[in-house]
Amino acid sequence: MTSVDQVAVIAAALPEVTEGARYGHRTWFVAGKPFAWIRPFSKADLRRFGDAEPPDGDILAVRTEDLGEKEAVLAANPKGFFTIEHFANYPAVLVQLRTASAEAVREAVLDGWLAVAPPALAQAHLSGGRPG
Hints:
5 helices
C-alpha cells in the first residue's frame, strides 16, 4: 500500500518536479506538464461502473509514453492498475494506491515522468548526469 504522501516523496525525488493542483487535486509536473495526479471518480465515472464496485481509496493517474505502453503497463500490473472509459485513447493508467505494490507505483511514477520530461533532462537522469 502506498499513500498519496509517499507518491509525493517519489515524485519530488525526480529532477525539476513541481507539485500543484489541477481541478483541485494534487498533481505533479515536470516542465509544466502533468505526469501524475490524484484522480477521484466523477459522477459519470461512477455511473459507468454500473453494478460493479469501483476501486476504493486514493486513485493515482499516471501518464504513459503512448497507448502501447499503457497496454503493456496494464498487462504487467494486474493488481491495482486499471483504466476506465474516460481514459480510452489517452496514454495514462489509473492506480489504486491501496492495492498496487509500492515498487509498481514507484516504477509507474518514474515512467510517467520520463513520458513527459524534456528529452535532455530524461536522458541526463537516466545516465546519472545533468542536462547539457
